[in-house]
Every structure is written in structure tokens, then in C-alpha cells.
From TrEMBL:
Transmembrane keyword on record: yes
Residue ranges crossing the lipid bilayer per the database entry: 42-63, 70-91, 103-121, 133-152, 158-179, 200-223, 238-256, 268-286, 292-314, 335-354, 360-378
Domain Major facilitator superfamily (MFS) profile: 4-382
Protein's UniProt keywords contain Iron-sulfur: no
Listed name of the protein: MFS transporter
Principal cellular location given in the protein's record: membrane
Origin organism lineage: Bacteria, Bacillati, Actinomycetota, Actinomycetes, Kitasatosporales
Pfam families: MFS_1 (PF07690)
Location within or outside the cell: Cell membrane
Organism: Streptomyces gilvifuscus
Stored PROSITE patterns: MFS
Membrane topology: Multi-pass membrane protein
Domain of life: Bacteria
Record keywords, A-Z: Cell membrane, Membrane, Transmembrane, Transmembrane helix
């Protein structure tokens, strides 16, 4: 695999760290800025809103630019947002800085996925995407715990300065390792970019992302009370257990990339089915500590097996605007974050028990399977007639098919 993928992974590591570290810093930020923890929780929402807005917007506006230049510019915006977070004088300014930090998130992964796939052979595209996402999953193992500890001992502002440093390292890596001759985007206008998103298969792929990852966040958003109230773990053990989620996600991500290069659709169906099964078994697995730890790792693995296949599928269905479509998939991922957490909260509020968000997530995973099945049926209806037309033409002009030039 090209060394340039390392530069993309470094950027993904920084983005993954800043996205998830706020959850662990909420009490410290709330105390320092004299706001309640629920109010401080809006800082998480501000970042997610920045991702949803920035992902398609920045991808569309930079469609005519060199992708190498775009990646470096997006990471510079990421550094600026985190530096402003570190020096924010109050809650409102921190809220704005978190929104700014989220703007480049989706576009970076979207454009980065296109760059990654352009640097490898067609049969290794999914694997290249999974290696870029490796930075995101490793962030859950090392970046988030270390950044949280830094914030607890040195202050939350030091955490955002540290993340800014990671961003600067990513800029250097991108400038040194991303080649110029593989990153020039086609000169497509904004109208053409947006037109490419009108395709039904693209929206079905995005819908699969929302339902599939909504299933993950329905349970993961409430994993702490499950571990403490149902499995009986002490709160001090939760950070280590969440690192197990990162280990599972890393394994699932790498496995999904490898399998998707052999069967994109099969890997997607298998991942969603596995996710539904794990979530359905969650209430049982949370009954003992050892099985609860296993459940956390399995949740990460089953969910992230589908990451690379979904990203690649969206790009293929919108081949005229792969950067925009890939970025839109990141926006869908964050919609899944918000929607899944809401559905899990509804299950809790209804009094179905502390583990009830997991079965609710299982139903979302089944919904994702249904959407993926519809997408498969639509693809078959579109490709079979096209194949039939190709056979008719070939039967009438056999001499052309034998031409060395293929014309």
C-alpha cells in the first residue's frame, strides 16, 4: 500500500480524537465555564452540526481544486478550529469554535477516500479506504484516552492544543507524502456535482449508512450506564472498556476492507446482519462482566466492518462526483449519530430498561439490511437490461470486439 495512506491516517487520527474527546471532558469544561453538563453537551452537537453542513458544502465548493491542496486546506481549518477552542474565552466562543472544527471533518474523509482509491489498483480500493479509516479507529484506542487524561491533569484547553499539534503533523505528512499527479480533480462544476447526487442508488446507500450506524449509536451512546448498572463495572473502568470498542472497531475496519475487495455487497450484508445479532444479544451479554467486555469489542467490530463498503459504494454510485458523495456519506454518519442516540433515549425513557437501546439498535440494523436489499434490487434492474443491450450489439459487430484497440 502507498505510504501516502499514512498521511491520511494521521489526519483521521486527529479528527477522531477531537470528535470523541469532548464526551470525556464535559464535566471539566462545564465547571470551568460555569455551565451545566447538559448545556456543555451542546458542544458535541455543535461539532456534529459542523460536520453535516461542512461535508457536502466544502466538497462541492472545492470540486475544481487539486485534491492534495484541498486536503491540506481542510486540515489547516481543523487546526484553526481546535486552536480557537483552546483559547476560547467563554462558552459561546467555544461553541462557535467547535462548529468550525467540525466543518472540515466530512470533506476530509470524503476527499481522502477518493485520493486513497486513486492510488491503488481497483481490486484494493476498499482496503485503501479502510487504512485511512484506521486513524479514526485507533483514535478510540489511544487518542481519546490520552487526550482525556491530558485534559483532566493539564486542563481541557491543553487537550485542544495537543489536537492542533496532531493537525500540524498531518499537514506536514500530507504535503510530503501525497503526490501531485494523483490528486487533480476533474473540472466539474457545482451543478454537475449536485446533479450526481440525484441518483436513487446514491440515496439508498446513504440511507443504509444512516440506519446501519444509527444502530451502532443507539447502543454506544448509552454504553456507560449499561456497563455500570447492568454489568456492574465501576465508573473508573469505563475508559479501559471503551478502548476495547476501539480495538474491535480497528479489527472490523481492516477485516471489512479486505473482505469488501472480494465482495462489496456480501460484506455489507454480513456486517449489518452481525451488528443486528450482537445488539439483539446485548441484554444477555451485559449480565456478566466478562461477556459485557466481549460485547463492547464485538459491537465495534460488527459496526465498522460496514464502514469501507458503504464509503466505496456511495463513491461508485456517484462516479461523476465521488468527493461530494463520499463527503455526504460522512454527513449521513453524523445524522446516524444524532438519530441513533435519540432512538436509544426514547427506549430508555419508555422504561424498557438500561439495556433497551441495544435491541432498539438491532431493529435499526434490520432496517439498514432492508434498505441495502432494496438498493441491490434496484441495481439488478438497472444492470440486467444494460447487459442485454451490450450482448445484442456485440452479436452484430463481432469484428469490432476483436480489434486490439477495442473500437
Amino acid at each position: 500500500m502507498p505510504l501516502a495512506l499514512l498521511a491520511l491516517a494521521v489526519g483521521a487520527f486527529g479528527i477522531g480524537t477531537t470528535e470523541f474527546v469532548m464526551m470525556g471532558l464535559l464535566p471539566d469544561v462545564a465547571t470551568d465555564l460555569h455551565v451545566s453538563i447538559p448545556t456543555a453537551g451542546h458542544l458535541v452537537s455543535a461539532y456534529a452540526l459542523g460536520v453535516v453542513i461542512g461535508a457536502p458544502l466544502l466538497a462541492a465548493l472545492t470540486a475544481r481544486m487539486s485534491r492534495r491542496t484541498v486536503l491540506i486546506g481542510l486540515m489547516a481549518l481543523f487546526v484553526a478550529g481546535n486552536a480557537l477552542s483552546a483559547f476560547a474565552p467563554g462558552y459561546d466562543s467555544l461553541l462557535a469554535a467547535r462548529f468550525l472544527s467540525g466543518l472540515p471533518h466530512g470533506a476530509f474523509f470524503g476527499v481522502g477516500a477518493v485520493v486513497a482509491t486513486n492510488m491503488v489498483a481497483p481490486e484494493r480500493k476498499a482496503r485503501s479506504v479502510s487504512l485511512m479509516f484506521l486513524g479514526l479507529t485507533v483514535a478510540n484506542i489511544a487518542g481519546v484516552p490520552v487526550a482525556t487524561l491530558m485534559g483532566q491533569h493539564l486542563g481541557w484547553r491543553a487537550t485542544f492544543l495537543g489536537v492542533s499539534t496532531i493537525g500540524l503533523a498531518a499537514i506536514v505528512a500530507l504535503a510530503l507524502l501525497i503526490p501531485h499527479d494523483h490528486t487533480q480533480a476533474p473540472a466539474a462544476g457545482l451543478r454537475r456535482e449536485l446533479t450526481a447526487l440525484r441518483s436513487l442508488p446514491v440515496w439508498l446507500a446513504l440511507g443504509t449508512t444512516v440506519a446501519g450506524f444509527g444502530a451502532l449509536f443507539s447502543a454506544y451512546s448509552y454504553i456507560t450506564p449499561m456497563l455500570t448498572d447492568a454489568a456492574g463495572y465501576a465508573e473508573t473502568s469505563v475508559t479501559l472498556l471503551l478502548a476495547l470498542f476501539g480495538v474491535g472497531a480497528t479489527i472490523g475496519n481492516l477485516l471489512g476492507g479486505r473482505l469488501a475487495d472480494h465482495s462489496l455487497r456480501g460484506t455489507l450484508f454480513g456486517g449489518l446482519l452481525s451488528l443486528a445479532a450482537v445488539l439483539a444479544l446485548f441484554p444477555l451479554l451485559m449480565s456478566t462482566q466478562w461477556s459485557a467486555a466481549l460485547a463492547v469489542a464485538l459491537l465495534g467490530a460488527a459496526a465498522f466492518v460496514t464502514g469501507s463498503p458503504l464509503q466505496l459504494m456511495v463513491m461508485e454510485k456517484a462516479s461523476a462526483a465521488p468527493s461530494l458523495a463520499s463527503s455526504a456519506n460522512q454527513a449521513a454518519f453524523n445524522l446516524a449519530n444524532a438519530g441513533g442516540a435519540w432512538i436509544g433515549g426514547v427506549a430508555l425513557a419508555a422504561g424498557f430498561g438500561v439495556t433497551s437501546p441495544a435491541p432498539a439498535g438491532a431493529m435499526l440494523a434490520v432496517l439498514g439490511l432492508g434498505v441495502a436489499a432494496v438498493a441491490y434490487a434496484v441495481d439488478r434492474r438497472r444492470t440486467v437490461p444494460a447487459a442485454g443491450r451490450e450482448r445484442v450489439v456485440a452479436s452484430h459487430v463481432p469484428q469490432r470486439s476483436s480489434s486490439p484497440t477495442g473500437v
